[in-house]
Each structure stands twice: as structure tokens, then as C-alpha cells.
Amino acid sequence: MQGTLDTLLSADGSVDPAAVSLADTTFVVLDLETTGGAPDGGGITEIGAVKVRGGQRLGEFGTLVNPGQPLPPFITVLTGITEAMLRPAPPIETVLPALLEFLRGAVLVAHNAPYDVGFLKAACARHGYPWPAPRVLDTAALARRALTRDEVPNRKLGTLARFFRSAVEPTHRALDDAKATVDVLHGLIERLGSFRVHTLGDAIEFAKAITPAQRSRRHLADNLPHVPGVYIFRAADDRPLYVGTSKDVATRVRSYFTAAEKRARISEMLTAAVRVEAVECAHSLEAEVRELRLIASHAPPYNRRSKYPERMVWLKLTTEAYPRLSVVRRFAEDGATYLGPFSSRRTAELAAAGVYDAVPLRQCNHKLSLRAKTPACALAELGRCPAPCEHEITPQEYDVRAALPFRTATSGDPGPVIAAILARIETLSDKQRYEEAATVRSRLIALLRALIRMQRLDALTRLPEMVAARRDDKGGWEIAVIRHGRLAAAATSPPREHPRPTLDAARLTAETVLPGPGPVAAASAEETERILAWLERVDTRLVETSGDWVSPARGAARFTSLLTRAEAAAATQDSTVRLSVTDRSDDARSLRL
Questions:
Q1: CATH architecture of 212-307
Q2: Which residues of 364-381 are buried (b: 16+ CB within 10 A; e: fewer)?
Q3: Is 489 helix (H, G, I), strand (E, B) or coil?
Q4: Alpha helices in 138-278 (DSSP H)
Q5: What backbone torsions phi and psi does residue 432 show, to the nearest 5 degrees?
Q6: Can you state the percent helix, strand and coil of the chain, rounding each to 5?
Q7: pTM of the prediction?
Q8: Neighbours of 570 (CB within 10 A)
Q9: Which of 94-103, 152-161, 378-387, 404-413 has the lowest mean pLDDT?
Q10: Contact call for residues 207 and 200 (beta carbons, < 8 A)
Q11: What is the pLDDT of residues 185-204, one digit of tens each?
Q12: Could you say which architecture CATH assigns to the domain 26-208?
């Protein structure tokens, strides 16, 4: 009983009308007769409406309406309504207040509802009455979904009335047609039970255009919990097909079987799915993290993101006498300097090109000897490389000019590197070489993203433990125990209770996380970034830490606004955006991109 009650409650504790059973829903079944044509605020000649609930008629509303315009002869032939009958009838602006009051709090039902609703909305707009926006159920749309062509040749009101043996025959008079529609509605509601449609919300969604796969799999959303968690669509052989997360698992899974879900790959996935598994979580952060881990572990075929975290790459500054940049697959404890992680080799190479624009690192792959010389490449002849291959520069000088700026940028201040790239963009722009300037800008973006990301990750993953909490919507506390950037435990304390016992229990049962090399030794970069986003929310409170959570004072984060503007300029291909980087004396270098 409690579970049923919960499904009827909205977030504010009120009853959600969409969750009320069809037997307990109040319907106003309405029909209009008009002069024809498009809705323009007039043209209504007759209104008929019947209010029903649970199969019982609660009231009727019927009146002729003076449309204020001539009545076409074919309308008189069709309906039997004449201009003489309409002349003494009240105009629509006089009828609307009583009709809107009759509709109050009820679900509007009509056959081909968009037609009737269109006329009523236009009339309200013309005469200054607010449209109450009731929930609308279309019996014609319901019939298209619930009845087959073998049962009825078409979905006309007269055909359906005969099929359901209506006590009233449609006559193209508003009240008679509304009464016939009532019988059709009741017949359709009986039929909907076989489709597991029992609530108003289910009926409204059922009436929409959904695929056969969605309709046949709707039962997969039954009996799922209304809690934060992860849901897994599984195939007949139990393979995970798709993994997702939500603050309300049941509601989110149900949305896959509505007309709002139009993705072709999801439709294909639903065809293969035979069950949905729910993993309940303490709060949304745990759900997001579990989703990432499940996707990484199982690589579900219908998930597109986060599937292969092991494919990340790094930029490594080698430990040779004349260091160079190399794209590698793993972060090792070898004394080298690393930058990353990057999602692809292409992105890493783009960032490396940005480094080459700023500092004279050699770009060749030769293993250079301190004794024997190696023939120089074209870059040395162009002045783009100090030619360590020909011993034109000492290892000590090379380290200061080329290697040290990169090392400093990864763990401290990247200002000199960024300033050098911006200067190159300015030079190219001044020479009206805008395409080349845009290329260098893309390198700047890739490099800045990596620098900011790595320093943020490193600041958190250095901490052996951090405990944080934030208030949830029910008055309790969401608690997270984070170790070396990995979510080690999650819990939620009940409302009106002190969170300390829950917090202590979470720490005692938390996962043991060992430190390792690099900023993603214990968790994927995406997991740590999800945790960072949660920690940086204004309502999150740090409870305990085993050390200082700090970043370099003049680190990469101070260039976040520069990155944002560069990305915006790149997205719009705007060559007039000016970017600036400020040095210690607050002098600014402004550059046209």
C-alpha cells in the first residue's frame, strides 16, 4: 500500500493526477459543432459536454452558440442547425466562463481532440480568458492504438460507437456526440487493461505514437523502485545492453516506452531487451559513479560514452639527455613528466603541437647521443628546433629553454607557455594568416584543457581521504567518503537525525584504496571529475580531510575563462574575439583570433 501511495505523490507531497487510476479520474467528454474552417476564436455553433467518473455521469453541459458569422449551407445539411436557431443563442464570450468552470479539475476528452481544443483555445485567447491547460485524452488516438483493423475498418466516432454498442448514436449534434464519446471512452478503458494501462498518465502516453517494440516492452518498467540508482537493460543471455542512471529509476525507465523516446539505437536496444535490473544507490553521486564503472566493465553495445577508459593516453616528457614528447598508454613511476589523460591519441598530439608552438622541444624520435652527432632535420634549418642532434645546444641549456617550461606548466604555472602560444596567434593574425591562427588556437584549447584537468585531478587524488556531505531534498544528508579520488563509500542519513552515526558507519565500511602513480591511479578520470563536480556544489560541506585540498596559486585553473572564450570563438568560427592573459604586473596581452 505504501508503494502505491508513493507513486501518487508529487515532489511537493500532492497527488499527481497522472498517477490516479482511470476509474478514479474525472473526465469531461466534450464535442463542438462549428462553421468549419480553421480556429480563429469564433465559428463555434454548439457545445456539448458530459462529466463522468467511475462510469457514473455527474453532469451535462449543452448550449447553442451564436458564431457571429453566416452559417454555411453544408453545415446546416450535416447538423440540422439553422441560422434561425443560432440567432437567439448567446455568443461564445458569454458561454466560456460557465464552460471553463465545468472543465475545472477534470481531464478533457474529445474525439479528434486537437480540433476541439484548437477552437476553445482560440476563443479564450480572443476574449481574454486564460486557457486552463487541462490534461487531454483523445479517443481517436486511443482507438488507433488499442483496436486493430480487423476489429474496426476506421476510427470514426460512428464506427466506434457501433463497435462498443453505444446507447446514443452520433448525430453531428454536440451533446449527442459527447454522450456517444462517453460510451466509446468507457469501452476503450476496458480494452486498455489488457495493455497494462491503468492510470491517466499511462493512457495519455499510450495514445501517443510509440513503436511496437516500446509497446510490447512496457512491462519491463513495472516494479522498479522510485529511488536514485542505476538501471541495466539486459538481453536474453543476460548481457548488459545499456546502462543508465537517474534520481528516479522507475520514472526514467518508463520514459523509454513513451513517444518522447525517438532515438533509433534505443528502439533497437528495446527490441533485444528482456528485463531491466535496478541497482539502488544512496544518492545521485553514487549512481553516477556506479554507472561509469558498469559501463567501463561491461562496454554495453548501446552506450556511446565512457566505454573504454583504458584507452586513454598521456603525453610523456622523456628522461633522455635531450627530452622529447611521446604519446604513451600508461603513467609510470619513472621520473618522467606526464600530461593527461587524453581521450584519444589525436587530442594528445594536438596538445603536443601546442607545446611545440611555445617551447623549442625537439620533435624527432631519435635517441640522441651526447658523443656522436645526428644530421639535423628541416626544423633546425627553419629555426624551429635548437638542433640538439648536432650539439648546437648543451643539455643544461636545452633543459632550461625547452623542458623546464613544460614541467612547470604541468604542475605549476603554465603562464609562460600560454603566453608564447598567444603571441604566435597574434603574429599570424597580424599577417592575416587566419586559418593558421585558428589551427594554433585549437592547439591552445587542447593544451589548456589537459593542464586544467590534470591539476584538478591531481589536487584531489593526492588526498588519502576526504569526507563530504550535502543536504538532500528530504532533509537528510548525502555522505561521500573519497579516497585518492575514488568514491570509497556512499550513504544517506535519515531526516531529523544527526548524520554522525551514518558517517562513521560509512567510513568503517569504505573501500580500501591504495595510492598509485598519476592523477587517475585509483579511479577513472571521469569518476574523479564527477566527484569534483559534486564537491564543488555550493551546498556541499567538507566534513573531514586527511590533508590539504589545494591547487597551485598560479596554476592552470586561472586560465579557465581564457579557455571558455577560446572554445566559444572556435565553436562560432569567430575571428574577431580577443583573448588576454594577464601577467604578474597586470599587463594584458590582447590577441585577435
A1: 3-Layer(aba) Sandwich (3.40)
A2: beeebeeeeeeeebebbe
A3: strand
A4: 139-146, 157-163, 174-192, 200-207, 212-216, 249-255, 264-272
A5: 60, 30
A6: 45, 20, 35
A7: 0.71
A8: 16
A9: 378-387
A10: no
A11: 999 999 998 887 889 988 88
A12: 2-Layer Sandwich (3.30)
* Beta bridge mates, 327: 315
Q: For residue 346, give the amino acid letter.
A: R
What's the average model confidence in pLDDT over 7-15?
41
503: cell is 558517517
Give the torsion sign (CA, 445, 450, 455, 456). Answer: positive
C-alpha grid cell, residue 166: 453505444
Kindly tell me if the per-residue pLDDT of 100 is higher than 90: yes
For residue 510, give the amino acid letter: A
Please name the residues in contact with 383: beta carbons below 8 A apart, sequence gap of 6 or more. none
Would you give the end-to-end CA distance of the chain in angstroms?
Answer: 64
Q: Dump the DSSP string for 86-115.
A: HTTSPBHHHHHHHHHHHHTTSEEEETTHHH
Count CB atoms within 10 A of the CB of residue 336: 17
Return the C-alpha cell found at 502.
551514518
How does pLDDT run across 332-342, given as a tens digit for each residue? 888 899 999 99
Q: Measured on CA atoms in the order 138, 142, 148, 152, is the torsion positive or negative?
A: negative
Q: Which residue is it, cell 478533457?
A: 108
Query: β-strands 466-471, 540-545: how paired?
Result: antiparallel
Could you tell me if 345 and 359 are in contact, meaning their C-beta atoms sit under 8 angstroms apart?
no
The residue written with cell numbers 515532489 in the block is 11
Catalytic residue among 172, 226, 366, 391: 172
Q: Sign (positive/negative) of CA torsion 120, 122, 127, 133?
A: positive
Strands 136-138 and 229-234: unpaired
Whether residue 576 is predicted with pLDDT greater than 90 in this model: the reply is no
Q: What are the residue boundaries of the structural domains of the chain, listed by start?
A: 26-208, 212-307, 311-452, 464-545
As a residue count, the chain comes to 593
Q: How many CB atoms lie within 10 A of CB 537?
A: 11
* Residue whose entry in the numeric block shows the C-alpha cell 480563429: 40
Query: Known catalytic residue: 111?
Result: no
* Number of Cβ within a 10 Å radius of residue 172: 17
pLDDT of 146 strictly over 80: yes
User: 120 is written with which cell numbers?
Assistant: 476553445
Put residue 125 in one of left, alpha, beta given phi > 0 → left and psi -120 to 50 → alpha: alpha
Strand, helix or coil for residue 139: helix
Report the alpha-carbon distance of residue 40 to residue 22 in Å, rounded: 33
DSSP category for residue 64: E
Q: Are 456 and 551 in contact (CB under 8 A)?
A: yes
**Residue 24: other Cβ atoms inside 10 A:** 10
| Closest of 241, 186, 245 to residue 217, by C-alpha | 241
Q: Is 511:485 a contact under the CB 8 Å cutoff?
A: no
For 234, half-sphere exposure in the C-beta direction (CA atoms, 13 angstrom radius) is 12
Give the residue among 36, 100, 99 at the shortest CA–CA distance from 67: 36
Q: Is 24 helix (H, G, I), strand (E, B) or coil?
A: helix
Q: Is 431 exposed, middle or buried (0-12, 13-18, 19+ CB in 10 A)?
A: exposed
Per-residue buried b or exposed e for 391-407, using 16+ beta carbons within 10 Å of the residue's own CB = bebebeebeeebbebbe
Q: For residue 445, how many other CB atoms are within 10 A of its CB?
A: 20
